[in-house]
Amino acid sequence: MFDGYYNAFWFLVIGVIFVALNLWISSLIRPSDPHAEKLLPYECGEESSGTGFVRFNPRFYIIGLVFLIFDIETVFFFLGCNSQRCWSLCPR
Over the stretch 30-82, which tens digit does the pLDDT of each residue have? Predict the structure, then answer.
C-alpha cells in the first residue's frame, strides 16, 4: 500500500537528522558568554524606553490578507486556464 512512499519517508528522515545534527554541531562550536549586558535588547545604541508592545490597526492586516487571497486566486486561475486550454474564458 505504501510502496511509493518509502523514498519520501527516507528523504524526510534523513532531512530531519541532517538539520538536527547541524544544530547540535553549531551549538558546540559557537561561543557562549551570556551576561546581563549581552542579554539586553539593542536599539541602535539608544537605551530602550517603554514596552515593545505597539498596537497596530487591524485594517493593515485585512488589506494584506485580501491582497494575498486575490493574488493567489489570480495565479490559480491563470494556471487552470493554461492547463485546460479554455481560451474562451481566459483572454490572451
Answer: 888 878 877 777 767 777 677 777 787 889 889 999 999 999 888 888 777 77
First and final CA of the chain: distance in angstroms?
44
Of the candidates 51, 31, 32, 56, which has an alpha carbon nearest to the alpha carbon of residue 41?
51
* Residues 59/61/62/67 CA torsion (nearest 10 deg): 130
Q: Which homologous superfamily does the CATH classification assign to the domain defined by 3-84?
A: NADH:ubiquinone/plastoquinone oxidoreductase, chain 3 (1.20.58.1610)
For the stretch 63-88, what's the b/e string if a residue is b when 16 or more beta carbons lie within 10 angstroms of its beta carbon?
A: eeeeeeeeeeeeeeeeeebeeeeeee
Regarding pTM above 0.70, the answer is no
